[in-house]
Amino acid sequence: MKAITTIGLLVLSNIFMTLAWYGHLKFKDLKWFENLGLISIILISWGLALFEYFFQVPANKIGFKENGGPFTLMQLKVIQEVITLIVFTIFSLLFFKNETFKWNHAVGFSFLVLAVYFIFKK
């Protein structure tokens, strides 16, 4: 159960992180945000990133082996990176129609999945 909770919280965290880091790139398409300056965009992104921490910190606390969780620190980091790539890929394909998923992306992601395999190998 702690593994599922940890992964679920990491997914939520990464959704907010992706919105904070890349969502502002679509602000020009939204009437309310089209004329915002850089400082305003930074503050909005910072506000979104706050929600990232609301999920990331508990995920690491619950999931960390030394706190009774199922994952080592290295495993937590690699899980988080793979989730980040999955969330980012879905986000970029949904919101940035000019972005495409190419064979080299699939190869690179496959290597990251292999990283998960090797990190979890005893």
UniProtKB/TrEMBL annotation:
A Pfam entry, by short name: DMT_6
Superkingdom field: Bacteria
Membrane-spanning intervals of the chain: 36-55, 76-96, 102-120
The entry's keywords: Membrane, Transmembrane, Transmembrane helix
Protein name: DMT family protein
Annotated organism of origin: Flavobacterium cerinum
Top-level taxonomy: Bacteria, Pseudomonadati, Bacteroidota, Flavobacteriia, Flavobacteriales
